[in-house]
Amino acid sequence: MFYEIPLLNWGGFVLINTIMLVSSYCLASRLGQRLSFPALVAASILLYLVQAILSVLLFGVAFKTLNAVTLGVFNGALSIVLLAVFWRYRRPFYTSLGHGMNRLLAEKDRWLYVFLGLLILQVLLNLVKAFVLPVHVWDSFTYHASPAPMWYQLGQIPLQLDVPVTRINGKALGITVLMYWYFIFLKDSVLVNLPQTVMSIVLILVTFAACRQCGVSRGWSLKISTLIYFLPVVLLHSVTTQDHLSINTAFLCALFFMREWAKKGGKGNLLLAGVAIGLMMQFKINAVIYFPILGLAFLYLLWEREKSVRKVFSLKRLGRPVAVLGVVAITVGGYWYGKNLYVYGDVFGRLFAPGERGVYEVYEPIPDKGNQGVLTNLSGGQKSLRVQENAVSSSGAARRFVKTSKFVENLRNFPGRILDARYMFEPDISSVSGFGPQFFIFGLVALVAVIFSLLKRTASFDLYYGIN
Question: Distance between CA atoms of 254 and 249, rounded to whole angstroms?
């Protein structure tokens, strides 16, 4: 428990994370000089997470000296350098926070105060839950959490782990790296659920900033951010070691910073967009599924700014910023893909590697009268089946995509997942859409109202975020 952790460990943890957050805030102030304060804080948190992840990978993979001392000394020294260079660019934190709160309170909307109070209360409650709850999701036991203690025991991050769940070795384990980060200084697992709690706070900030970017008032921006945060899937994932909330929050950040760059210019916003895309790659190996959406969004932004197809596809306006995004994203999140390519010959790892087949251990259903179809493993009574999945040649790319991805299945199941009032909520049930029963009750009515308002031109619609 937390009270058994030595005060020296707590002191080291608080000190190193505080200095990293402050230095990241100074760097973000330099990169996003024209960002709103919520967007600036969100950018600071992203940069802080990137520093933590890359430092663990540096000492775990390259130097193979992964421990609290090396991480503490390195990140402390790096943060001091960042403070020395970028301190003069920092935006006054408490002054900016005070001004923002005064503007919100000036709205004189009693419901706004209710929303703000509920939001603060729920964030605090989720922090407590992340602090108290152990790892409690099935996926976390199988592959999200298990590599972190193995890295701790080994003092390094090997290319492959000797584990029964072989797909661990082909996953992007950025969340697991952050779990290790929140463990190593305390030598206790009390904070391992914290990464997604942090990303849920980023979700609040970037949702507010995106609403303001679309011209929504401060009061309504806060209300919308609160409603997004109170989605059941967000509340559930924010206290787990899953990666779904984190990758989608990073995706929204990438969309936001790309639009900031398109509207206001500044290389810093483009760099921050690349950082967000890199974090997407860190959090989940299938982040590449988002790339076509990001590409179309980027082309739309260029067309919105230039109003000329010829200018949009010019080398200067398209090639250079895409190159910057690519270099930053690969630097931040490319390790897992490069490792998979080196070890398995495929960026997606063992599951799709040419000549390889994903092998899973499953067990025969027990034809028992009282419990039909339950998968059990009885010693000496059941024969383990080696199921060869995805046995498709690398030449059949289209067939492999349909066979191995969830895309077609998701399209078939989409109507049922939208009308999901009958489903219970757990962080690891794929049949739940994430909107919850309230979408069946309120969401469909609201959707009809929005369509009607657009047809009658009584409401505005932001095409960029609306389509994405």
Answer: 9
